[in-house]
Design brief:
Elements lengths: L2 H9 L12 H6 L10 E5 L6 H7 L3 E6 L2 H10 L5 E5 L2 E6 L2 E5 L13 E6 L8 H14 L5 E9 L13 H8 L3 E10 L5 H5 L5 E10 L3
Parallel strand pairs: 1-2, 1-6, 2-5, 6-7
Antiparallel strand pairs: 3-4, 4-5, 7-9, 8-9
Length: about 220
């Protein structure tokens, strides 16, 4: 899976992963982080998610990272926001009010971009990567998130033999093996949501678990 895969998805608007409404898990569990309603929140692989608007409405400044310039431009167009563009090394920065979207490869994102964050939110980043890239992403996330900072992680888990990703299956065992060495992990929720996902039903996937975790960066 190379960057062209995602650029093509956005170019052809094959974006079934985009949710046209605010994620209910974000609304239900964000308070578990016990954050003050100020401070910067990092959203990796943010796409044009409305979740960023929700976080901004809570009083946070949102720092998103997204590979596709199409996704970034659509976010501002869809939400009728004017923006200013600047350059950050090989990345472009699009800024409007409380939202700053950094367009480019997250794996080359400078660590100091996240120095000021008080929280983070990953709904569609970890599950976007196949296994080898996912391990690299987990390591990159650990590099970006300062010690003591907490965030929410939303995952999907299912029989990967029944359906090729993305989204890719991420099991609790995988989280324990590759996330837990860097983060304190607390599972807040897990439920079989197969009945609500016709794509998986039609492919005869036997089960589909959606889980929400609270992650807190540990000291090394």
């Amino acid at each position: 899976m190379d960057p062209k895969f995602w650029h093509d998805k956005w170019q052809m608007q094959q974006i079934g992963f985009h949710q046209p409404e605010i994620n209910p898990y974000l609304q239900q569990f964000w308070s578990e982080l016990a954050l003050k309603p100020v401070g910067d929140i990092f959203v990796p692989l943010c796409g044009k998610s409305l979740d960023m608007c929700y976080l901004a409405e809570l009083g946070h400044k949102v720092i998103g990272c997204e590979l596709s310039q199409t996704a970034v431009e659509q976010f501002f167009t869809d939400n009728q926001l004017s923006y200013q563009a600047s350059q950050l090394g090989e990345h472009q920065v699009f800024s409007a009010n409380q939202i700053q979207l950094i367009q480019g490869d997250i794996f080359s994102l400078p660590v100091d971009v996240c120095n000021s964050i008080v929280g983070f939110y990953d709904r569609a980043a970890l599950i976007a990567f196949p296994d080898d890239m996912r391990k690299n992403y987990a390591q990159k996330l650990a590099e970006l998130i300062p010690v003591g900072v907490s965030g929410l992680l939303v995952t999907l888990d299912y029989d990967q033999d029944a359906l090729n990703g993305p989204p890719f299956a991420v099991s609790p065992d995988w989280v324990e093996a590759y996330i837990a060495p860097h983060f304190e992990v607390t599972q807040l929720f897990c439920e079989d949501v197969l009945a609500d996902n016709p794509r998986f039903v039609n492919k005869q996937v036997p089960w589909l678990n959606e889980a929400v975790y609270k992650l807190t960066r540990k000291a090394i």
